[in-house]
Amino acid sequence: MLAASDAIVLKHFHRAQIHHKADGSEVTVADRGAERVLRRHLAQHFPQDAVLGEEYGGTLTRSGRCWLMDPIDGTASYVLGLPHFGTLLSLIEDGEPVFGAIHLPALRETTYAANGHGCWLSRPSKKPTRVSVAPATALARAQVGLTSFKASDLARKRGPWRLSRLPAQIDRLRPIGDCVQYAVVCRGLLDAAIDPLMHPWDIGALVPCVREAGGSVSDLAGHTTHLIERSSFVAASTETLRRAIVNQVKPRAQSKKRQ
After folding, report:
1. Is 255 inside any structural domain?
2. Which of 45, 56, 181, 208 could in theory staple to 113 by disulfide, Cβ–Cβ 3.0 to 4.6 A?
């Protein structure tokens, strides 16, 4: 399934024509073509399952099985010819993510996990290896990934999250971006990663991967349940580090509340 999607994504890599959706976000023929391939495969093999994708919508079901997909997460990198983009695929059962894959076509690697089975890294011609998050570290020594300033106090249209506070509190801010930063968290090369604006298809694959790698996840308000229905996301190597990040970026009125 992912091989068929890759064929479309990589065919247009370096030469994709950009279009803009109603919300201003970028989209290409590769985004749409890859999602159609993924949907056809799921319809053939799992015809009773619901599907929700970034490009063609669907229904997020809270009971039964539902597949979430983002054919190109990181379209901004993709259209610049940079390899830091991925395909996200996840399975939700009764509203909770049970399987997730962070597939990076240009880098030829996949980080994937199923609940209770660990998190794994797969590369061509190599046996999959189990991966885990970095050892515990304090906020002041943490390296944290960040995708964008959307929905934050640094955005042109100011949002609730106080991202401006974070750089002074950590060791280094790494603007890696999109799903790539979470794959890096899962293998212990980055201590944490945050996204101030997310959708269900962005979140579904990340939850089982980070948790099965031994990490902790929530939204930026600190909620750890119903994550695919949240609109922000943070992953960290430990719960303590995640809570510390949440306390830094929460709106001031919420920062003193218990998480």
Report:
1. no
2. 208
